[in-house]
Amino acid sequence: MKKIYGIGVLCAYLLAGCAGHSTEAEHDHDHEHEEAAVHDHEHEGHDHEHEEADHDHEHEEAGHDHEHDHEHEAAANPGEVVFKEANAKAVGLQTITVTPGAFTQVIRTSGQVLAAQGEESVMVATVPGVVSFGSVPFTDGTAVRKGQAVLSIASNGLSEGDVAVRAKAAYEAAKLEFERMEALVADRIVSAKEFEQAKLNYVNAKAAYEAVADKQTAKGVAVVAPLNGYLKNIQVKEGDYVSVGQPLATIAQSNRLMLRADVSERYYSSLPMVQSAHFKTPYDEQVYRLADLRGRLLSYGRASGGDSFFVPVTFEFDNKGAILPGSFVEVYLLTKPLEQVISVPVESLIEEQGLYSVYVRLDADCYRKQPVTLGANNGVEVQILSGLHGGEAVVTKGAHQVKLASASNAIPAHSHSH
């Protein structure tokens, strides 16, 4: 019995050993399989990373080539600016095609606008007395009509008495004396000499009375405007005492004006060639052409003034705009004609630290900044000595907008091939 029991225990021990060995073998096999799977996965990840690195490297090389090409385009077209056609229309950009044409030499100087002869009249006191203003504002620039009462002069408070009353009394007395003499001279009761003296006294008294009779007002004798125009050069104020003939104010029509240019003596030899002129006013910065204002040259001085080194050149023109008489202006005298000259409007120029340039349109969206050398300037157009050729389209209006666009286009996104 014991023997059988021992055999059973041995068999059980053997079976347990075999099961343990089998389990370890399976465990080792599974472990080896997992390690192989992990190794294979790591190898695949390594291959994937290698592929990504190759892709990144290719992408970097492509980007480098793109940047290189982009920089090459920028370097190949220096000074070009992209300004889209839609933006050009929005700002009202305009261009002209430059062609060689006629121009003139220019003498640039200063001058003054003056009233033309016969376009001004000075109001003077017709009687002595104290100035009294009426309903018309007695100030510079007030519009007046011919025959309109501008102010009055009262003399009733003076020791001599009212001028109008005295003039009327003198006239009536002289009239009676003349009529009496006229009746007696036929009978030779009075001499012809006495009659002529009475007649002279009567005529003078009548003239003095009629000069103030129709201008008598409650405030005194009215002073009327001799022509239509505007008051200027006011020389009295209310309450001032004036004597006969004293200036009170000036009335200017300003329909016809004069331009006097003060030219340096060194240009004296060129004055006979002066044809016309342009001038620019300081209050509106507008350049006026005398050719557009029916302007004409009146004269130029044959000698300089005693206190200056300038020779006057005088023009006359119509005041079609709001040109202010008495204002000082910048004058461009047009002299010797020039042929086959390339010129552009002044507003086309861009100035940077004393250097000038213009923008030339290359196509609908691209412009080139072109440095230029300037010649004569007549205030409207400027002569181009170098930098431009006939047939090029130059920006006349909107050049500063193109300049602003160039600041945001340091590396152009648009390449224009020539």
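Second entry:
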Amino acid sequence: MKKYVDYIMDVTQKLLSIDSPTGYTANAVEFICKEYESLGFVPTVTVKGGVIVDLGGEDKEDGLVLAAHTDTLGGMVCEIKSNGYLRLSPLGGMNPNNGEAENVKIITKNNGIYEGTFQLDNASIHVNGDYSDAKREYKDMEVVIDEPVKSEEDTRKLGIENGDIVCFDPRTRVTESGYIKSRFLDDKLSVGILLGYAKYLKEEQVQPQKRIYHHITVYEEVGHGGAASLPAGVTEMISVDMGCVGDGLKCDEHLVSICAKDSRGPYNYEVVSNLMAAAKREKLGYAVDVYPYYGSDVDCTLTAGYDIRHGLIGAGVYASHGYERSHRDGVENTLKLIAAYTDTLRKS
């Protein structure tokens, strides 16, 4: 599986370099479609903007969807302040503590892209005596635009308006020891894993027993990514999303996490049991955990009324919704679990 893990690490870095906060995902979707096409598959873009791919398989009446999302956290301009700087409204669960002092891009609708930095109001420690005690909330944060603006009028002359998208720098880095560090591994690392699985099926000429579909969603971070576009005949869906790493959990960045329950309730007992059995059979590094503050695409699919079995797996990711970290071992274990679960695993 090494060459497929190498491919996943490479394609994930390329995808991370394409800004795609919720509501601004077309460029990432175009890249993903071209990648599936280069692998010999025919992706379809949904009306909503996501991607559906039929990977083949024998049983169309017992199909399986593997879902990941390419939308990320970000911000939207909600106010141009009197000093010319920008107040933001978050897109998804972007915590201002995690975004402070990060470089950003302001995507205007009519006049190109500007750069800036997301800062606490009055951000100079030598001037602001309350800097250390100030609570980081959006109402007390601003985007300092890298242009000579002094007023709201100056900023509007640049073409910046309320509703413009603000993208945070992912700062992607891969270490010699195999760690990948970046914002937005949630969930672009999983998109990379699904692309790697598609490459594996094509190059190894594997025909899965079940019909396999990929659904790359674009509104997961705001709660309705998986709420539509389930192909006919699908009876099961597994979200491939980040595995949680933190106090009280067994997972780390080297493992694949199997989620037994998240904040919305338990995952299908049969699916969880079968995922565990596949991991044990292949002697994979895995953990089974309960995520206390988490919801997934497949939760939304069930809420939308689809009658399916559901599961959730993912490579372990530390510091979720912040500057995240995973490892190629976790990628490999996740890829192998997908292959083993769908009865397509071949020894490499």
